Amino acid sequence: MSVPDRGAGHDAALRDVTASRPVNPEGALVLFSGGQDSTACLAWALERFDTVETIGFDYGQRHRIELSQRPVIRDGLGRLKKSWQARLGPDHVLALPSLAAISETSLTRDMAMEATASGLPNTFVPGRNILFLTYAAALGWRRGLQVLVGGMCETDFSGYPDCRNDTIQVLARALSLGLDRPVAIETPLMWLTKAETWALAETLGGQPLVDLIVAETVTCYQGDRTKAHAWGTGCGQCPACELRRKGWEEWHSAKI
Ligand code: ZN
C-alpha cells in the first residue's frame, strides 16, 4: 500500500491489517451497511475467516437505499473470488424502529445537517454503534459466531465517541461477560485514513473490488445515487460525500 508516512505505530497497524494470515476456522459476523467502509470490512473478513455472515439494521435511516444495495454488493464480492463465494454465509437484517423513535438527528428526521452545540454532527445517533454491536453479539451467540467485525474508525474522527477504540474494546469485554463466552470485536479500519481504506480495498481485491465499491456502495447521507463521480455516487455536498471524495483524491495522489 502506498500511503504517507504517519509514524511507526500507524505503520504497524497498517502492516497488521494487510498481512496475510492463515484462514481463521472461526466464523465472523460483519456489520454490513452497504457503505464503503463496511464493504472493505466484509472483504477483509472474507480473506481471513472460514465462514462470514453479515448483519444490517433498518432503523428508518434517510439513506435507506444502502439497504437495497447490500445484496448487490454481497453478490459482487462473491463473484470476485471463489474463496470469498465459498465463505460468504447468510445475511441478516434486523429492524430497529425504536432507534428512529428516540433519535432526533438528520439521518432519521428531515432536519438540516449542521453541527450541534455539543460539536457533534447532528447526523449522530447517540450510542448507535453500541446498540448495533450488542444486537450483533446476541445474533452471533445464536449463530455460533464469536468474532464481530465493524468499520468503526478513530482516524477520521468526527466526534462519534462510540467509534473510539476504547469504547469498542470495553464493550467487547462487557459482551464477553454478559454472554459468558469470548466475544472479539475486530475493527480493521480503526487506524486507517479514508485514503488507506481505498488502498486496503485494492490490496484485498484489486481493481475489481475498487470498481465494485465505486459503483455500488452508498456513503452519501442523502442516499443520492443519481450523481456519479470518480469516487462513486452521491450528492457530492454532504459531509460523508466530502470525506469519501477527499480520501479518494489523497489515495490517488499517493499512488503517483
Ligand atoms: Zn452526499
Describe the protein.
The chain has 256 residues and is α/β, with parallel strands linked by helices. It has a single domain, classed as 3-Layer(aba) Sandwich (Rossmann fold). The protein has nine helices and seven strands. The protein has a five-stranded parallel β-sheet with strand order 3-2-1-4-5, with helices on both faces. The protein has a two-stranded antiparallel ribbon with strand order 6-7. Helix 6 packs parallel to helix 7 (165-179) and helix 8 (194-216) packs across helix 9. It is globular, with a radius of gyration of 17 Å. The two termini are 12 Å apart. Residues 1-5 have low confidence and may be disordered. Residues 220-222, 224, 234-235, 237-238, 240-241 line the site of zinc ion.
List its traits:
alpha/beta; binds zinc ion; globular; disordered N terminus; 256 residues; 9 helices; two-stranded antiparallel sheet; single chain; 14% strand; 7 strands
Oligomeric status of the shown chains? single chain
Strand order of the largest sheet: 3-2-1-4-5
Q: Helical amount among residues, as a percent range?
A: 40-55%
CATH superfamily, by name, is: HUPs
Number of strands: 7
Low-pLDDT segments: 1-5
Q: What is the SS-derived class?
A: alpha/beta
Report the order of strands and helices: HEHEHHEHHEHEHEEH
CATH topology: Rossmann fold
CATH top level assignment: Alpha Beta
